[in-house]
Amino acid sequence: MLVELSHITRSFRVARRDAGMKQALRSLFSREYTVIKALDDVSFKICEGEIVGYIGPNGAGKSTTIKIMSGILVPDSGSCVIDGLVPWKNRRRHAENIGVVFGQRSQLWWDVPVADSFELIRDIYRVPEADYKKRLYELVETLGLSEILRTPARQLSLGQRMRCEIAASLLHGPKLLFLDEPTIGLDAVSKLAVREFIKRQNCERGTTIILTTHDVRDIEALAERVLLIGHGRILFDGTFQKLLAEAPGAENPEQALAEVYRKYEIL
Amino acid sequence: MKSSNTRKPPRLRAYLSIFRIRFLGSLQYRIAAYAGIVTQFAWGGMTVLLFGAFYRGGGRFPMEYPQLSSYIWLQQAFLALFMSWFFDPEIFELITSGNIAYELARPADIYFIWFTKNAAIRCSKAALRCLPILAASLLLPKPYGLSLPASPLAFIMFCVTMALALGVIVAFSMFVYIAAFYTISSLGLRMLALALLDFFTGALIPLPFFPEWLRTAVELSPFGAMQNLPLCIWCGHIAGAEMWKSFGLGVFWLVALVTAGKLWMARALRRVTIQGG
């Protein structure tokens, strides 16, 4: 059991205000808040070596769960143990166990060559030189990075950057990898390459992977198991095929997923 | 994948890496450096001549004119190290967007990473700009140019207190970054810091020219160590026992500011993880 979440609950206070001058002035003195329950009694377990697709409509609570599992957000209640550590309590040690690719964020320094960013990551994660060299070689080979190692990140295309981000997240050999929208914006060839790489990584290295994505094809290609979250609750935990079976009339996976969302009233 | 059981490299390596990469990265920006050199040279020349006019008018001055000229030229040559208005926009962006949270997913000490980054950028900019100005001002005719340091010891202590000045300035800047966690817009803070620093470090008017009571107060504060100390040491205005005292005081301020900054940052980051960015 690598990942174990039990009864995780997390709410956010969000300031609310109607439009208009009067309201704007009033908000200077007293703020109105609404409490949004982002996660409501979320529990699940993930074994080492699994690839899990974590899906749900926008605002369902996916990012919040990932943040809690990364140790960058503290839940209101419940427990989370990953590889024997509580993420937000042992943040630094936990960070050495995990790799993250958050789609919109870049790990690379944008005006220096990619190779420099990689070396910096090696130093931050304190990867022994021999391990680093070996891993770097593997990643460069399998992701096809040899041409672009000396290019600054700002001059890379999105596909190239994504492959570098994925390599960057694996340099320290984490047990658990969070992939948030890894194929967003990529062309067809790059998408296939990334999916292929993820599968290999999981097969050959046994890296546990939690994949959040809206791309149904990603799920289809990669995830043996799917967790569906909606309105802060886990609504489905099983294989992707079983999920598709809940929408028998659908013509393709996208339709099936939409059907399932409607069925669970989360859209 | 299990890594081999070799010992892990020390954490320090990360900071040296950051320094090196940021330093080298900033060297790319050469056009800005050329512009800076021209500006600083012009500004230095104007200021030296301006003070020259005051000195010619007669009266008692706290420093000899050649000492003052050296002070001004060094101030301009190393402006990038001392400047009050440099703040890394990336950091503010991280904080206001809430993306700072993602930095916490790495096993890094954010305070020291930002500290090293800032220091590296300042050093890099100064390295690009200082040599032409130092060379040119050394060649200027006697009272208007840069004179050699007052003594070999003065030169050594100049170098040491320059490093100290860098540390104190960056440690002070860290407060501006951390304060950004608590406000939505950092602009007001930056302007406040800018005004404070420009005046109290002696950037506008060299500290020796302050009224006695104010000068004493400022030299006891961290501001005294931010540029005034090394500049005065070079031209011999601060020497002997006073030099060692001021140096000790500067070290105290460095330690105090870094400790306070680290503590405050830990609190601010806790807020981020509990509130959600």
List the helices and strands and how they pair.
The complex is a heterodimer of chains A (267) and B (277).
Chain A: E1 3-16, H1 21-26, E2 32-46, E3 51-55, H2 62-70, E4 77-82, H3 91-97, E5 98-102, H4 114-124, H5 129-143, H6 158-170, E6 176-180, H7 188-205, E7 208-212, H8 216-222, E8 225-230, E9 233-239, H9 240-245, H10 253-263
Parallel strand pairs in A: 3-7, 3-8, 5-6, 6-7
Antiparallel strand pairs in A: 1-2, 1-4, 8-9
Helix pairs in contact in A: 5-6
Chain B: H1 12-26, H2 30-56, H3 65-77, H4 79-82, H5 89-97, H6 100-103, H7 110-139, H8 152-179, H9 187-200, H10 212-220, H11 223-226, H12 228-234, H13 240-275
Helix pairs in contact in B: 1-7, 2-3, 2-7, 3-7, 7-8, 8-12, 8-13
Runs of chain B in which pLDDT lies below 50 for 5 or more consecutive residues are none
Largest sheet: number of strands, sense, barrel closure of chain B:
none
Spatial arrangement of strands, main beta sheet of chain A: 5-6-7-3-8-9
Main beta sheet of chain A: 6 strands, mixed
Mean pLDDT across residues of chain A: 90
- The tally of strands of chain B reads 0
Kindly give the count of domains of chain B.
Answer: 1
Oligomer: heterodimer
Distance between the termini of chain A: 32 Å
The backbone outline of chain B, from C-alpha atoms, is: globular
Biggest interface, CB < 8 A: A-B, 39 and 32 residues
Question: Over all CA atoms, what is the radius of gyration of chain B?
Answer: 20 Å
SS field, number of helical segments of chain A: 10
Low-confidence stretches of chain A: none
Which overall shape of chain A is indicated by the principal axes computed on the Cα atoms? globular
